[in-house]
Amino acid sequence: MGKVLLADDDKTMLKLLTTLLELEGDESTAVTRPEEIVPAAQRECPDIILMDVHLIGGNTLEALQSLKSNPELQHIPVLMTSGMDVEEQCRRMGADDFILKPFRPSELLRRLHAAMENKMLSS
To answer: Does the chain have fewer CB atoms within 10 Å around its N or its C terminus?
Structure first.
């Protein structure tokens, strides 16, 4: 059971992800704009952040860099998603993992929970 910060501007996707996480016993909070990500991470202290690369108002790579350069937040694993294969760019900017859309819910859950487990083991 973990706490997930969702950063996506697709309302349907957010509803599906929220439902999927609830069924797994996870708690989630959602933001839809890049500038909301860092303040939400500070406020919510999530176990992991699931972040789409492209949101209304720009891409989230700058927020990713801000998260990974902040000593209070850099320990939070970030799983990036996109419909474009930008995995290398995301990892270079600090992402812990990347999953290409469309993805299978089971694969997403496996990766989210693996990252949360790794975080707990390293704490």
So the answer is: C
